[in-house]
Amino acid sequence: MRAMKKNARALLSIGAGCLLLVGGVAGYRYLFTSGLEQLPQKVCSGAVDREIVIRALPPSRSAEEGDRSGSPGQHFFFSCYVYAGDDSTLSGEAQAADSSVTTWVKFYEGKRGGDELVRIKKGPVQALSLPDGLVSVHVPCTPQRHDSDEAVQSYALVTEARTIGETRAEGDDLRQAVTDFAYAITKHAYRSGGCQERISLPTDLSDANPRSRNE
Fold first, then answer.
1. How far is Cα of residue 85 from the mean position of the Cα atoms in its chain?
2. What is the pLDDT of residue 71?
3. Which regions in the chain score pLDDT beneath 70?
4. What b/e string do you get for 36-61 counting C-beta neighbours within 10 Å, with b at 16 or more?
């Protein structure tokens, strides 16, 4: 009987040790991979939901976010970046531009050859998604103190966003995450940049029907 009790205590000690080890490993993983979760719920002055960033970037020990913006007008811009550790970045810039939709599309067709260019249109908003996590958004936007007929082509707000380095998502999931990031920046810039158009922007682009460049 004493031998049985002794063996039972030994097993309990081993089990407790294993639980402590597992708990220690779990704590270690959280401590050193929860950098993104420690960011504000909305990053870049409230422009982007943290969950969008978490979908795009891999877990990391540290994370940093920030933004910059210019004064409303013809040269207005808004930029947002998120660093996950030293090797992964999600960033984008929205800026006022004089560019028609046709010119915008042709630019990105030439930039990456256009072979895998996916085009999304929802109301007045259009987005182009390219391989390797590059997305651009185009929305009409006449800057303050300017008339729309002053533009050589047409006034717009053009955003470009991309990932650099390792990512959490891949393929279509990465395209959607970066598209959501780019569009969040666009909406923030549209409001803070003082676009004269009174356009009702869609909530998101996730349920828009994507089209290839050949459609």
1. 16
2. 87
3. 1-33, 112-115, 207-215
4. beebeebbbbebbebebbbbbbbbbe
Q: What are the DSSP E strand ranges found in the chain? A: 42-43, 48-49, 63-69, 77-84, 88-98, 118-122, 125-130, 134-140, 155-165, 210-212
Classify 157 as helix, strand or coil.
Answer: strand
- Angstrom distance (rounded) from CA 160 to CA 4: 70
Task: Check residue 20 and give its pLDDT.
Answer: 33
Closest by CA position to 57, among listed 160, 186, 202, 180: 180
The identity of residue 10, as a single letter, is A
pLDDT tens-digit readout, 88-142: 999 999 999 999 999 999 999 887 655 578 999 999 999 999 877 899 999 999 9
Dist. CA 78–CA 70, nearest whole Å:
7
